[in-house]
Amino acid sequence: MATMAAGRRGRRLAPVRMLAAIARDSTFAVAGIPFHLIAITVLIVPWANKDVMRAGTTEVLAAVLLAAALVLALRVPLSAAQRHRSWSLLGVEIERPPPAPGRTLWQRMAASLRSDVTWRQLAYHLVVGPVMAFGGLLVVGGWAGGLGLVIVCGYEFQFLAPHSGLGKHLGLLIFAGFLLVLAAPLLARLVTYADIRAARALLGPSRSQELALRVETLSESRAGVVDAADAERRRIERDLHDGAQQRLVSLAMNLGMARENLKNMPDEVRKVIEEAHEEAKEALAEMRTLVRGLHPAVLEDRGLDAALSGIAARAPLPVRLTVDTGERASPTVEAVAYFVVSECLTNIARHARATRAEIDVRRDGGTLRIHVLDDGAGGADPARGTGLASLAQRAKSVDGKLRLDSPVGGPTVVSVELPCAL
To answer: What angle do CA 70, 73, 75 make, to 5 degrees?
Structure first.
């Protein structure tokens, strides 16, 4: 029943929507006439002025150059007016092209003259604009002429034709008026469609600019996602450190005190307490490893140098660490660098059969460069699931690069470049 009622309401509102669309298209076409004629009028004024044309060559050239400069200056507000007209009357948004680069006014003007945005805007205002203005005038003529013929000739047909013998001619004029009234909405729709298509193509950003804006938007959204994920890891690390880890510490301490003080308990009970104590200590060690894997607190508090020193100290093989970063990078980049080094050392300990490792972390301008070397057996392959593929993905998440050089027999070198300006 509800569907049938909605269908009946839709059928009742269909004529209203059609009349609203006709009024919207006609208003849009007619409202654009003055805007479309401004640029071409400014450009042809010197040629239409007889006093200017009678003057010398210098005066004519000065007038023409002045008119061209005015058109160049007017293209910006005229383009803004056309974009506003499209949005306010049709709800169609035409994006603004990116501004011309340059710090000073002259630099921006020079870049603007070299940009295709300027010439596309001029093409719209000087070529498309007059055609759309002519179309708008035809819409005005269709409505005004059609309604005028119907009203005036209808009046004459009703009161004068029976006595003047002009009925046939008046009937033809009334029929022509009806045709104009019927053609006016179609013409308004055609003018509106053509104007919007031309405005999108010429007043908006070009295809390459749209792609560049899209890439920039995607890069910003990806950076936001990466930062949000890193912030979420820090939150989980704090919650685990302040909550579950502290409870495990308390549990291990209580079990340790019970183990030391309750020596007169039966052997079975003491054995259970000892096993529980050992399990609590192992769970605490695993929890600490998990917390460090999420986001080490030392990285946020003391920086990358201290965090990497902790990794090197805990490694099961000798590690020579060199860190020279100078100014700190963003927290996200530092987190990626930390996890890259941590995963590399884990891979070395598990798979490389190495006796030593070297880690060099340096900041070179806007790039953080990481080199991890080991003297193991080599032959590392990301396709074999050694964690190198995940490292490459982690580096790519901040527009970084990872290169692997691991010939059979070693040594293996992992080089990572991370942009610091994230």
So the answer is: 105
b/e for 288-320, b at 16 or more Cβ within 10 A?
Answer: eeebbebbbebbeeeebbebbebbbeebebebe
Q: What is the pLDDT of residue 310?
A: 82
Residue 208 or 53, more confident: 208
The residues, any chain, with a CB within 8 Å of residue 186's CB and separated by 6 or more, are none
Q: 374 phi and psi, to 5 degrees?
A: -140, 155
For the chain, how are helix, strand and coil distributed in percent, rounded to 5? 75, 10, 20
Question: Over 80: is that where the pLDDT of 155 sits?
Answer: no
Whole-prediction pTM: 0.53
Q: How far apart are CA 219 and CA 360, in angstroms?
A: 29
Strands 367-374 and 357-364: antiparallel
What is the chain's alpha carbon radius of gyration, rounded to the nearest angstrom?
39
H helix intervals, 49-104: 50-54, 57-90
**Cα angle at 66 between 37 and 115, to 5 degrees?**
75
Q: At 295, phi and psi to the nearest 5?
A: -170, 105
Structure tokens, 214: 């899209």
**Cα 13 to Cα 21: distance, rounded to the nearest angstrom:** 12
Query: 210 or 6: whose pLDDT is higher?
Result: 210
Distance CA 344, CA 396 (A): 16
Question: Quick check: 397 pLDDT over 80?
Answer: no
Give, rounded to a whole angstrom, the gap between the first and last alpha carbons of the chain: 57
Neighbour order of strands in the sheet with 357-364: 319-324, 357-364, 367-374, 412-419, 401-405
* Cα 55 from chain centre: 54
The closest alpha carbon to 129, from 66, 43, 210, belongs to 43
